[in-house]
Design brief:
By secondary structure, the protein is mainly alpha-helical. It has a domain of 25 residues. 59% of the residues lie in helices and 0% in strands. The protein contains two helices and no strands. The protein is flat. The relative contact order is 0.05.
Length: 75
């Protein structure tokens, strides 16, 4: 019962977090100047995605060598 309650609380916490993030982005989009600044920054970051890599080189994950804990199965 304790594990079930912990999982329900974590699910609710994540749901609320994502709802708050979505609300913040919606608010940001309503501010034209602020949204343009975000878009400008994204374009600048997009230019660095392949910085220093040849086109044929795969983009690896930063933690490619790190072991991850197995994910819990949802029921």
């Amino acid at each position: 019962m304790q594990a079930l309650l912990e999982e329900a609380i974590e699910t609710l916490r994540r749901k609320r977090f994502l709802e708050q993030v979505n609300a913040a982005y919606a608010s940001l989009r309503r501010d034209v100047k602020a949204w343009e600044a975000v878009e400008r920054e994204r374009r600048e970051w997009d230019q660095t995605l392949l910085d220093g890599l040849a086109v044929h080189e795969p983009r690896g994950r930063y933690d490619a060598g790190a072991k991850r804990a197995p994910r819990r199965k949802r029921t």
